[in-house]
C-alpha cells in the first residue's frame, strides 16, 4: 500500500512540486524571520553575555535594561563587597563616546570600562593581542567589526591610535565581542582610563559586577545584595531577560516579525492545503478502487498520512536548508551579520509549525477519502 500511495503522489509531478514548494517557502520564511528576530534580541544583551565572569549585575533601582544607565557613586561598590556571599565585586562602566582616528574619521563607540586589577568584564576571546595587554598605558581593545568599520579594507593590526575626548588610546587587542544592537564599535579600557576619557564626575559607575562564592545560590545572593544595599541586583540571566523584555515591550520589533511569521504560516497552510485537497479529489477514483478491493479505511488513512508526511519532510528539509545557507552566505558578506544564525530551537519550532500546516491541509482531504463511495469506480 505504501508503494501505491507514493506512485499516486509522484504521478502528478506538477502538484507534487507545488506541495514541496509551498512547504519549503513557508519553512524558509518562518525560520528565517524567527532566527533574525532571536539574533536581534540577543544583540540587545550582548554586553551582559560577554561579561562571563559576572554572576550578578548590581545597578541603580531605576535601571530597567542594560542600555539605561543611572550612574552610582564608587562608595556603593564597597557596600556590595561587604555583603555576605560575595566572592568579589568590581566596577563596570558602560557609555557612549566619540573616537577620532588619525585619518580624520569620527565614530561613535560603545566604551566599556573594566576593573584595573582583574579586567573582569572583557570578552575572553581575542583575535589579536591578549586581555592582559589592557594593563598597558593608554591601552584599549576594540571588537573586530569595529576595527573593520573604522579602518575599512585594512588588515587587523595592533598599535592603531585614536583619540577619545582628547585622550590618546592605543589598540592593544582585537576582540570577538558579540555584536551590539547598534552597530557602534565596542571598546574596552581600564576603568581608570575610561573615567579619564569621559571626564570624572561624582557619579560615574554604571554597574557592579559580582561573582558569588563557591556553593552560594546566586538568586539568594542577589536578593541579599538588594536588601542590604537598596540597589537592584539581578543574575546575568535575569538581567538578560529584563533587557530583552524591555525591547519586546517598548519597540515594534515583535509585531513586525510576528506579522511576517504569521504570513508565512498562513500562506503555507493555504497553498499546501488547497493543493493537497485538489490532489486527493483527483485521486478519489483510485481510493474508491482500493475500497472496492476491500482495503480498510484505516489503511487508506495511513496512505494519505504517508503522502502528507513525505511532502512535509521533503519541503521542510529543503526550506530549512535554504535558511541555513542564507545565514551562512550573509555572515561571510558582512561581519555585522555574523550573529544571525539558525539555532536548533528555531529549527524544531519551525518543524512543529510545518506539522501543524500539514495536519490542517490533511483534515479536509482525509474526510473526503473516508466517505468516498467505492461505486465511484463504475461511474462514467
Automatic annotation (TrEMBL):
Major place of residence: membrane
The keyword Protein biosynthesis appears for this protein: no
InterPro entries registered for this protein in UniProt: ABC-4/HrtB_transporter, ABC3_permease_C, MacB_PCD
Domain MacB-like periplasmic core: start-end pairs: 20-226
Record keywords, A-Z: Cell membrane, Membrane, Transmembrane, Transmembrane helix, Transport
Transmembrane stretches, start-end: 16-42, 257-280, 300-327, 347-366
One GO cellular component term noted in the UniProt record for this chain: plasma membrane
Localization terms from the record: Cell membrane
Topology of the protein relative to the lipid bilayer: Multi-pass membrane protein
ABC3 transporter permease C-terminal domain: residues covered: 260-370
Protein name: FtsX-like permease family protein
Amino acid at each position: 500500500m505504501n508503494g501505491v500511495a507514493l506512485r499516486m503522489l509522484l504521478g502528478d509531478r506538477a502538484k507534487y512540486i507545488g506541495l514541496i514548494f509551498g512547504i519549503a517557502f513557508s519553512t524558509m520564511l518562518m525560520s528565517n524571520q524567527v532566527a533574525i528576530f532571536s539574533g536581534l534580541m540577543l544583540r540587545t544583551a550582548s554586553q551582559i553575555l560577554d561579561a562571563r565572569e559576572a554572576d550578578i549585575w548590581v545597578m541603580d533601582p531605576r535601571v530597567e535594561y542594560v542600555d539605561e544607565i543611572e550612574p552610582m557613586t564608587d562608595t556603593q561598590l564597597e557596600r556590595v563587597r561587604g555583603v555576605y556571599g560575595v566572592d568579589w565585586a568590581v566596577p563596570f562602566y558602560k557609555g557612549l563616546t566619540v573616537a577620532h582616528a588619525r585619518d580624520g574619521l569620527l565614530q561613535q563607540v560603545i566604551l566599556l570600562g573594566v576593573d584595573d586589577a582583574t579586567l573582569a568584564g572583557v570578552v575572553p576571546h581575542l583575535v589579536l593581542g591578549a586581555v592582559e595587554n589592557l594593563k598597558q598605558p593608554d591601552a584599549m581593545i576594540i571588537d573586530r567589526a569595529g576595527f573593520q568599520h573604522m579602518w575599512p579594507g585594512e588588515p587587523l593590526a595592533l598599535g592603531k591610535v585614536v583619540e577619545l575626548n582628547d585622550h590618546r588610546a592605543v589598540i592593544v587587542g582585537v576582540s570577538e565581542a558579540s555584536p551590539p544592537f547598534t552597530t557602534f564599535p565596542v571598546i574596552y579600557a581600564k576603568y581608570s582610563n575610561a573615567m579619564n576619557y569621559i571626564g570624572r564626575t561624582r557619579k560615574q559607575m554604571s554597574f557592579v559586577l559580582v561573582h558569588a562564592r563557591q556553593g552560594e545560590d546566586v538568586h539568594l545572593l542577589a536578593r541579599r545584595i538588594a536588601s542590604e544595599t537598596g540597589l537592584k541586583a539581578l543574575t546575568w540571566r535575569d538581567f538578560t531577560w529584563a533587557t530583552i523584555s524591555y525591547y519586546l515591550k517598548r519597540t515594534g520589533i515583535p509585531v513586525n516579525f510576528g506579522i511576517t511569521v504569521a504570513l508565512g504560516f498562513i500562506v503555507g497552510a493555504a497553498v499546501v492545503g488547497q493543493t493537497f485537497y485538489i490532489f486527493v479529489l483527483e485521486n478519489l477514483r483510485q481510493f474508491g478502487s482500493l475500497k472496492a478491493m476491500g482495503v480498510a479505511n484505516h489503511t487508506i488513512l495511513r496512505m494519505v498520512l504517508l503522502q502528507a508526511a513525505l511532502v512535509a519532510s521533503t519541503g521542510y528539509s529543503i526550506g530549512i536548508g535554504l535558511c541555513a545557507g542564507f545565514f551562512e552566505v550573509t555572515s561571510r558578506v558582512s561581519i555585522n551579520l555574523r550573529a544571525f544564525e539558525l539555532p536548533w530551537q528555531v529549527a524544531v519550532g519551525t518543524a512543529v509549525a510545518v506539522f501543524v500546516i500539514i495536519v490542517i491541509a490533511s483534515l479536509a482531504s482525509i474526510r473526503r477519502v473516508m466517505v468516498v463511495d467505492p461505486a465511484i469506480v463504475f461511474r462514467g
